[in-house]
Amino acid sequence: xxxxxxxxxxxxxxxxxxxxxxxxxxxxxxxxxxxxxxxxxxxxxxxxxxxxxxxxxxxxxxxxxxxxxxxxxxxxxxxxxxxxxxxxxxxxxxxxxxxxxxxxxxxxxxxxxxxxxxxxxxxxxxxxxxxxxxxxxxxxxxxxxxxxxxxxxxxxxxxxxxxxxxxxxxxxxxxxxxxxxxxxxxxxxxxxxxxxxxxxxxxxxxxxxxxxxxxxxxxxxxxxxxxxxxxxxxxxxxxxxxxxxxxxxxxxxxxxxxxxxxxxxxxxxxxxxxxxxxxxxxxxxxxxxxxxxxxxxxxxxxxxxxxxxxxxxxxxxxxxxxxxxxxxxxxxxxxxxxxxxxxxxxxxxxxxxxxxxxxxxxxxxxxxxxxxxxxxxxxxxxxxxxxxxxxxxxxxxxxxxxxxxxxxxxxxxxxxxxxxxxxxxxxxxxxxxxxxxxxxxxxxx
Length: 445
Description:
By secondary structure, the protein is α/β, with parallel strands linked by helices. It has four domains: 6-119, 3-Layer(aba) Sandwich (Rossmann fold); 145-305, Rossmann fold, CATH 3.40.50; 309-376, Helicase, Ruva Protein, domain 3 (Orthogonal Bundle), CATH 1.10.8.60; 388-442, Arc Repressor Mutant, subunit A. Helices cover 44% and strands 13% of the residues. It is built from 20 helices and 16 strands. The strands form five sheets. A five-stranded parallel β-sheet has the order 2-1-3-6-7, with helices on both faces. A five-stranded parallel β-sheet has the order 9-10-13-8-14. The chain has a two-stranded antiparallel sheet with strand order 4-5. A hairpin with an 8-residue loop joins strand 11 (258-259) and strand 12 (268-269). Helix 13 (316-326) packs across helix 15 (351-365). The longest helix is centred in the C-terminal third of the chain and has 19 residues, at 398-416. The model is unreliable at 125-136 and 382-386 (pLDDT under 50).
């Protein structure tokens, strides 16, 4: 016989306690109530709970006190906090401290039910889902990769927004997919969105959907990315490329957990987890005024930094063997020892994505069943122009000097990728749109 889940609800407002208690009992759950931090500790000492819901403001303390106590004594119990309307700072603070999710007052019962259903599917402890069941599992036995996987296992147990940083090609989307696959939303959709690939005029309709007749060409109702990710995870890749006008609308959608389709008169509730990523430095963009500070704090609740491939060179042979085996070429091809050593000495500015491109080219060029160093066709390490300190001279015109450097870098990247602009943009860590703009500005064909 299945055990009925037990929920501990903590609030010093009797009316709100009654409302939540009644709602949870109607869901077939067993509840216990507490009106203070002290009463909550007494209840927790008397038995195990499957979920704790606590108000942030209590007479003898705060919800953070409850959260810390549960983290120390009952680490398997997820905690959700209830914050005052508009007090997002409290919510962010609680999420950083390990809260599973949060609700804002006045508590919407549909959001409460959704939160509870999601929380009760959280695994008992980190890593309790078999690693083999995770699609696109992250390879590597280096200390850096072991630490990343351990962090992801912890992040999977919370709905806190995660911001993934790292160079282009370092596996940011792979990390996001793993967080999703190990969490309570694994059965829901994972919707990846490249924010840099959407024209600014189409962003609102792409993110939030539109009603029939909202604009010319809107011949039928259409769902947006938020609706498509309902019950799952929305992954915002290259989030730094969002224009300021869209940042405002995204912030509101995240805070209110509601979106309005273009042409609609009312908002629709959405239940999603947000994971974002970029190779750019968001904190610097906030200082420069090109990224909203309030959105930055909403997205960057927990930061996960992906190591570059040169920071985990020991993983290169393992990754190379796996990529060759996955190629499906039908050949029993392998890396020679000299080729293996050459790969490990290369800096890989394009990271794992560049490694994959290099190996695909090498397998096509290799005459026999062994890939030799010459088959890798690695470009020499880029040489940088001398600094002004070493040269001792000032450029005649600063813009011309910077243009010459930029033109040289762009030309070399195109040569290295055989004039594949998409690959060149990835290699340089910029968006395709940015690369195209730079090429046009500098007159590079």
